[in-house]
Predict the structure of Major facilitator superfamily (MFS) profile domain-containing protein.
Amino acid sequence: MVLDSQVANRSKRSQEQRRQLVSMADDDTPTAPLLTSHKAKPAEVPSIDDIIETCIGGTGAMQLLKAFLVVFARAFDGQLLFISVFTEAEPRWHCVVAGGDSSSCSRPAAAASPCALPPGTWAWDRPAGASVVSEWGLNCAGPALVSLPSSAFFAGCLAGGFLLTMLADSLLGRKKMLVAALASMSVAGALTALAPNVWAYAALRFASGFARSMVGTCALVLSTELVGKRWRNAVSFVAFSCFTLGFLSLPAVAYALREVSWRSVYFWTSLPCLLYAVLLYFLAQESPRWLLVRGRTQEAVETLRQIASRNGGGGGATAGSSSSLSMLQNACALAMYEDSGTRAGGVFVTLQAILERRWAIQRLAAIMAAGFGVGVVYFGMPLSVGSLGPDLYLSVAYNAASELPSAVLSWFVIARANRRGALAALAAAAGACSLACVAIPRGAEPARLAAELLSFSATSTAYNVILIYAIELFPTSLRNSALGLVRQAMVLGGVVAPVLVALGRERSFWSFGVFGLAIGCSGLFAACLPETRGRSLSDTMEEEERKQAAGSSAAVDKNSDDSHLV
């Protein structure tokens, strides 16, 4: 009885808040003529998203620059993600002629590895400290130990994603979580440069992955929540471009330090990241949407006033936005009653809110399954590209450069194409090109490299589309958590990828063949997801459910009209 009365009181308060919002919306709507040929539609309740759009009056140049500053974190994310391609590469070696006798070192007999040769009869082409493999003699240790550091890194990403992803939606928020992740990632990277052996190195790589797990998620979510609808696609495109920029800069840094040490590569990529984290702490803003769904309305209103002033509103909100701020407080009060389950409670309440709704579970399971297949290929391809060309730096640079057209294609797909069809088509294309790498003979290295580049480019586009798709599928109260779980499904694919790459050195089917099958099957899960193109972002679970009901009702009405026409 007590519980029923609480539910009833909450429902009454929610209805009262809704009536107030409708009344305020009616006040701002021009009066319709008394004599009309049809019945006027009742004013719709404005969502928090619509009210925020009115408050900020569009996105100005200064606010856009702040969003671009946030997404630049993706550049450091791209560097750390693929740094092991160089630091854990197996350098080339040559025979050493001692006293004119080279019979003890026969290169054709030991073409793959010098492990069977006597000591002193061979040497690395580069200094031993250029790679962890040559410094610690991992080339003869077997695939399990060789793949351990990379697998440990992705395992850290996986663990950090599950343990930290809820913090950005509950306690810390987007900005604090992003700054903390960047600072921790840079410190862990600098400490990795001091690792004395492979076991300490693998442990520090795990710590780097744990800290890095939230960088991409928070940067993408925070940047898209700081701008209006018109600029979200542009900000997403810049985010993908920044990641590509970080990936593309990595071969240049590694090439410049190729004769020094792999430790220098970690140090000179970690230091700029730490300086950027300090800069971001002082210049970035917290998401007003997150502040609103957490019930911190006054802070959100003050943030919106600051944004409005930078967008040409003078010293505060514009005249048009002053009434919107009042509507905003009523909308937030309504949202707090409707979605209070995701505001109060512990860190994992957001996950509980997903598990309580069948449609949310179905969406999350489908997008995570698709993300796993894409992650296997996206993280595995750069690790295996060394087997396709004689120059590791050029091969990786080609892969990084292939992400530039992928970023442009991602922007086009997000702006123009349906999400489901695009994801399925990209997965099928990537799978076909990856399987082509197995079918093409080993002697035709240029053809294999071209097929690999096409597969990686399509995979990169699919990776970007999945991230945007996940943002659109879930409301603000759960968005960061849902996107974090999707990214962890991709990272889980990254945990498997190094093992497949190690096995694929002997037989390419275990790398490129499995890659093609994995991503090809992942595109099938897009059929289980709703189309989100052109939809506004929801802020609460109830708002998302109302949109689903409205969409279903509109579909029924359309089918009814079609049947009458027939």
